[in-house]
Write a structure and sequence with these properties.
This protein is of the alpha+beta class. Strands 2-3-1-4 form a 4-stranded antiparallel β-sheet.
């Protein structure tokens, strides 16, 4: 769980693929979350992501925390970058459709 920062935005992301293996996803999502949160940030601004696999809805519940208010377009960019990191994790190749992994 990341350090709680003053601003938070939450949303759900769904896989384009009908596949949903919760056991696989928990491990890959955790690894991708760690990689994303360890990335250096510009101008010393902190940004962290917390992602939970929701097995009932078959989606990812994403909360983006930051030092500053994040505009809608930058929330989208953050989720796209997380998706890119996630797509490179072992076992995620089968989830990619037309070079895309997630949708909101």
């Amino acid at each position: 769980m990341p350090t709680i920062l003053p601003f938070a935005n939450s949303f759900e992301a769904y896989f384009l693929s009908p596949l949903f293996n919760a056991a696989l996803l928990r491990g890959t999502v955790s690894a991708a979350e760690s990689i994303y949160n360890s990335l250096p940030r510009k101008y010393g601004k902190r940004k962290q992501i917390s992602v939970t696999v929701n097995s009932q809805k078959k989606c990812l519940e994403i909360t983006l925390y930051s030092d500053i208010i994040i505009s809608s377009i930058n929330q989208l960019r953050a989720s796209q970058y997380f998706s890119k990191v996630l797509s490179k994790q072992p076992g995620m190749g089968a989830y990619i459709i037309d070079k895309r992994l997630l949708r909101q």
